[in-house]
Amino acid sequence: MSALPQATAQERSELFPVYLENMRQRFKSEINRFTGGDMARLLKGNGQAADLSFLMTYVYAWHWLRRHVPEAYRPALLASFKGGSRAFLMELLEGSDSAGDFVTGYVGHWLATPGPGPAQREQLLRLLAHQGDDAQALVQQVLTLWEGLGLFREPEKKAYARIAARERSRYGEMLEQVDRERLELIDKIAQKPPKSVKFTKLGMIPHMGCPQTCRHCMFVWRPLVKGREQADQLYDLVDAHTSSVLFTGGDLTRHMGHFYKAIRRMRHVRTFAILLNGDFAHDRTAVQAMLGEMKQALARRPGGWPKARVLLQISFDEFHQEVILDRKGRLKERIPVAKIANIVEEAPKYPGIQLALLHKQNCLNFSMDLFRQGVFGRLAAELGRRGHRLQVLSTAPSGRLKTNPYTGQRGQLLKDASFVLEDYPDSPILLTSSTIDAYGRAELLEPGEAVKEKEFLAEVLSRPRSPGQGFDTDLMFWFNGWATLFSAVHICLGNVYEEGADIVLARQRKDPLSQALANFDRRLLDFYAEKRDDLPHHLEQATGPHHLFHVITQDADMRLHMTRRLLA
């Protein structure tokens, strides 16, 4: 057995327990999922499925451990499960050199156990009898069955590469011949333009990129934005049509000059939001420099302009702050909680800057444990070491009941909250949470790791339309000129630099596909089924309605077909 890599004091005292807790929960969640029915569903059609499900679940567990947990860490992970009747299973999972050894050990254990025994022993004896009491034949049957399931066959790196290639191809279609044909159809729609067009908000993407590889990210591959460094046309366009703008595109730490320029240039915008991952906050000095630049940009707005503020959004969740292994097998935080604590410490000192932590919903969102455990608990502990105390001011639930991904129980979920450092009681910090849809890297997430919207999907599919609950169709302006939908950036309405703002804005108003997505128009599923035969698969795999409608509209040919059908 491999020895644990040489660990620092921080790793031993802080990171190792966090890593173990996360991996134990993932491991237990997967076991519960498969023993709770998922393995039986995979074995559907096999006459021995009921007797095979338990054993096959633990064959899965053996492979899961080899995929996700280095050998040196397995004993510590499995130690807490070694009490009780399943201790022998943990020993087999830890010590078996191959899946065949595991199954052989499992069969031998129950053959050596006198009866009458538990249900698993009786299942094993029935399976053995079906093989004429030939233990080796049973072992081979199980291994052959496992191979037929096709699980863990593709290495994670290869899976990510496959997803990246698909994303690259999809963005390569942007505004090519098929997309242009669709836009020509929209341009032919007769509609009297309004006197003025105002949006609740607009987005700007100066750059697409992020040095992190968080497992829940909606991107594996990001399109290169060959933009204009002097994008004055976009600044003026956004300023004329909204009072609120969001700068995004991954992490913009190296592109902050565009954001500061927007604050100084956009007279009518009053809320300047930006999304960062927090990795810039190496120490409080770095945070002070960043916040100081924002403060100066606000102060440089000419007198007589509307007062503006910055909404600084920082990604903060179990994925951005995940404890992972580096290439040498040593533990590290992807983006350390200490960096987020640096931001939380400094932000209350800047009245014009509102800090908001953006969190992804998981099992902790179903109780006040959200503030005591997980990543928020780690933040509170870090701030406590610095002499700060947190006070939660308010919490607000989601508008819908949701299912706890760990327990399977339905309940009310904490979606939004505000809290303060007690030294700054008048400077609340926001926490808002959202779900994760299975785009990009998140396609490989395990079901127990995040809240899904399966019930919401069923609700949406039960009616023709769901007005106001669909995609956000405000516009996102890329610095290369693209204008895409705010929450469906694979749908592009043209290039502002090449075609002008009036044409792009007119398309946003007239596009029947954008309107259908805004209302979750169920006809889109019928239109999709006219061209493809895999809709049942997408319905089964969808994490929610946004994911489903994203998947069925991600190909240019399909978008053209749907637009034609909607116009007809």
Lateral strand order in the biggest sheet:
8-11-12-7-4-3-2-1-13-14-15
* Total number of helices: 22
Distance between the termini: 67 Å
SSE class: alpha/beta
- Fraction of residues in helices? 40-55%
What is this entry, summarized?
The strands form 3 sheets. The protein has an 11-stranded mixed beta sheet with strand order 8-11-12-7-4-3-2-1-13-14-15. A two-stranded antiparallel sheet has the order 5-6. It has a two-stranded antiparallel ribbon with strand order 9-10. It is an alpha/beta fold and about 575 residues long. It has 22 helices and 15 strands.
Question: How does this model look, in words?
Answer:
The structure is a single chain. By secondary structure, this protein is α/β, with parallel strands linked by helices. 46% of the residues lie in helices and 14% in strands. It contains 22 helices and 15 strands. It has helices at 9-42, 49-68, 74-79, 87-95, 99-111, 119-130, 135-149, 156-172, 177-187, 232-241, 256-265, 284-299, 337-346, 374-385, 454-461, 496-499, 501-510, 512-518, 523-531, 535-541, 545-552, 556-567, and strands at 202-205, 244-247, 271-276, 309-315, 323-325, 331-333, 353-360, 390-397, 402-403, 410-411, 414-421, 429-434, 475-478, 482-485, 488-495. Strands 8-11-12-7-4-3-2-1-13-14-15 form an 11-stranded mixed β-sheet. Strands 5-6 form a two-stranded antiparallel ribbon. It has a two-stranded antiparallel sheet with strand order 9-10. Helix 2 (49-68) packs across helix 6 (119-130) and helix 5 crosses helix 7 (135-149). The chain is globular and about 85 Å long. The termini are far apart. The relative contact order is 0.09.
